[in-house]
Design brief:
The complex is a heterodimer of chains A (about 270) and B (about 280). The two termini of chain A are about 30 Å apart. The longest helix of chain A has 14 residues. In chain A, helix 3 packs across helix 4 and helix 4 packs across helix 6. In chain A, the strands form 2 sheets. Chain A has a 6-stranded mixed beta sheet with strand order 6-7-8-3-9-10, sandwiched between helices. Chain A is α/β, with parallel strands linked by helices and about 270 residues long. Helices cover about 35% and strands about 25% of the residues of chain A. In chain B, about 80% of the residues lie in helices and about 0% in strands. In chain B, helix 1 crosses helix 11 and helix 4 packs across helix 6. Chain B is built from 11 helices and no strands. Chain B has 2 domains: about 40 residues; about 230 residues, MetI-like (MetI-like fold). The chains are: A alpha/beta (about 270), B mainly alpha (about 280). The structure holds adenosine-5'-triphosphate and magnesium ion (MG). Adenosine-5'-triphosphate (ATP) binds next to strand 2 and helix 1 of chain A.
């Protein structure tokens, strides 16, 4: 299989080789997605498929539209005044752009660059917020969800004795894991992370990478990162974006060893960006 | 030459510094002077019976201002009940949903309202309620005070909601929570302390308003007689007693002023302590 012959259009993921992960079903697919802020067009015909229970990394220089792309996936993009997007986004076989955005966001959760726990809530309340605000009030269910989500976010042992302390009293890395737990508590099928480690030290970063590798058994992860090593460590698939275009999409291992596009190679080897 | 310039600059600096310090003392000293003077003049007439008794008939010595205390509490209380929800809701609208011409005009109107002389607001309440009902009433006084409160509460609520970081709003939306629940259960509580402080300060502000009550609540020398009758209030009682020809009433006016001042001060200090960020 010659890497140079790989067709990068949506339906043509790199063919499987014995060393590549087993191809999973498609969780989300994006076709001809264009997005803009007012008159400024930011995404140009992006095509992409995200496979179930894998980690897909999105890399590219600052301002190329990575955040815009993942914010389109759970339609947080349209919460910005004047922002529009068109094209097709499928969640499974449903048209995400035709779903109620509120319901879509319960299935496609999001973690942001800066940890943003709710300042008025305790640790437990933060984790339970998504359920409580949507009307779940059974205490047993909530307590169980809080513990389960905190465990999945690898934070339980550190906070189990102070669940009633304010969420903003935790360290930055703990706050970010709290935000991950909060997102996991509503049981999304897809979790989007926008540079979740950029405000964290290497140890906190390592914890989050570990937990991503664990949770991907149960859900699909899309992570935006500026850190090539991180993309290489946690992801199966990588998307390289440049100036609003998807330049290359393929298996991470392949992209980092034999990129098909000259621009990808330049970016990965640090020649620009 | 340079040394001379430097010495001159130092002198000018010292002079200006002294000037600003004197002005600062004047500004804060005024408060202390007012407080001290009122305490000195009013303290002597202040007694328990003054607080719990009704005014004596005109010409008789003694009596109290219980009716004015109750009246002020009722009129200001109802003004809060009417004005705070409207102000907070409008503030939420402006901060969370308000864009475009309509929001701009609401904001602009609120700012102008803040500067409208309170006696004009009183006249408006007179035209709106007193005139059609052909009767001065506690209700009309409350409405006048509520009109004064709304723009203050509105702008304060808007400011505090705008201080809530957008990332908090996004975090809640991204959990699949409908917009109105995000506003009501996440954003409002986050700004809650600031909003409540603003509401308290607005209450304290209108508690001392006299002009809008002259032709609305009107005043009454008897015990309060329901929302639809004239009612005594502290600032209005102070006003009528102070311009009366009786020495005894003058003293009572000072004592009433002391009570009003104490109330406003307590609310102010409470509100500010509340707003102060606390360590949790
Ligand atoms: N709210 C906004 N309003 C207007 N333009 C925006 C807005 N957000 C982003 N943009 C523009 O859209 C383009 C893409 O931004 P985006 O945030 O998606 O980039 P990014 O790849 O995530 O960058 P970074 O790595 O710095 O986070 C940029 O040129 C930016 O100026
Ligand atoms: Mg970004």
């Amino acid at each position: 299989m010659a890497a140079t012959e790989i067709d990068m259009r949506p339906m043509s993921l790199p063919a499987e080789s014995s060393a590549t992960p087993k191809a999973m079903p498609i969780a989300m697919s994006v076709r001809d997605l264009r997005a803009s802020y007012g008159a400024a067009s930011v995404l140009k015909d992006v095509n992409l498929e995200v496979r179930e229970r894998t980690v897909t990394a999105i890399i590219g220089p600052s301002g190329c539209g990575k955040s815009t792309l993942i914010r389109c996936l759970n339609r947080m993009h349209e919460a910005i005044p004047g922002a529009t997007c068109d094209g097709d986004i499928l969640l499974g076989d449903r048209n995400a752009l035709a779903l109620d955005p509120v319901l879509l966001r319960r299935e496609v959760g999001m973690v942001f660059q800066r940890p943003n726990p709710f300042p008025t809530m305790t640790i437990a309340q933060n984790v339970a917020a998504g359920l409580v605000l949507n009307g779940v009030c059974d205490h047993a269910v909530l307590a169980e969800t809080v513990e389960k989500s905190l465990r999945r976010a690898a934070l339980w042992d550190e906070v189990k004795d102070k669940l009633d302390a304010p969420g903003v009293g935790l360290s930055g890395g703990q706050q970010q894991r709290l935000c991950i737990a909060r997102a996991l508590a509503v049981e999304p099928r897809v979790l989007l992370l926008d540079e979740p480690c950029s405000a964290l030290d290497p140890i906190a970063t390592g914890r989050i990478e570990e937990l991503l590798l664990q949770i991907k058994d149960q859900l699909t992860v899309v992570i935006v990162t500026h850190n090539m090593q991180q993309a290489a460590r946690v992801s199966e698939y990588t998307v390289f974006m440049l100036m609003g275009e998807m330049v290359e999409y393929g298996l991470t291992r392949q992209m980092f060893t034999k990129p098909t596009d000259k621009r990808t190679e330049d970016y990965i080897t640090g020649r620009f960006g | 030459m340079n040394d001379l310039v430097y010495a001159r600059r130092k002198k000018v600096n010292a002079l200006m510094f002294a000037l600003t310090a004197v002005c600062a003392t004047l500004a804060s000293g005024t408060l202390l002077a007012i407080l001290g003077y009122i305490a000195w003049k009013g303290g002597s007439s202040l007694s328990w019976s003054f607080l719990v008794n009704l005014p004596k008939p005109v010409g008789e010595h003694g009596g109290g201002i219980a009716n004015a205390i109750v009246g002020s509490a009722k009129v200001v209380g109802l003004a809060g009940v009417l004005g705070i929800p409207v102000g907070v809701s409008a503030g939420v609208y402006l901060a969370e949903y308000g864009r475009g011409k309509y929001a701009f005009s609401v904001r602009y109107a609120a700012d102008i309202m803040n500067g409208v002389p309170s006696i004009v607001v009183g006249l408006f309440a007179y035209a709106l309620i007193v005139h059609p009902m052909k009767k001065f009433s506690a209700l009309s006084g409350s409405v006048a005070l509520a009109f004064i409160m709304v723009p203050i509460v509105l702008r304060n609520t808007e400011e505090f909601l705008r201080l809530v970081p957008g990332t908090i709003r996004e975090a809640a939306l991204a959990l699949g929570v409908p917009r109105w629940k995000v506003t009501l259960f996440v954003i409002l509580p986050t700004a809650g302390r600031g909003i409540m402080t603003g509401a308290l300060l607005a209450l304290a502000r209108v508690a001392g308003e006299t002009a809008p009550l002259i032709f609305t609540a009107f005043g009454n020398r008897f015990a309060d007689n329901g929302w639809l009758n004239p009612i005594a209030t502290l600032p209005h009682t102070i006003y009528t007693y102070a311009i009366s020809p009786y020495e005894d009433w003058h003293n009572q006016a000072w004592a009433a002023a002391l009570i009003l001042m104490a109330f406003v001060l307590v609310v102010n200090v409470t509100a500010r302590l509340w707003l102060r960020p606390r360590l949790t």
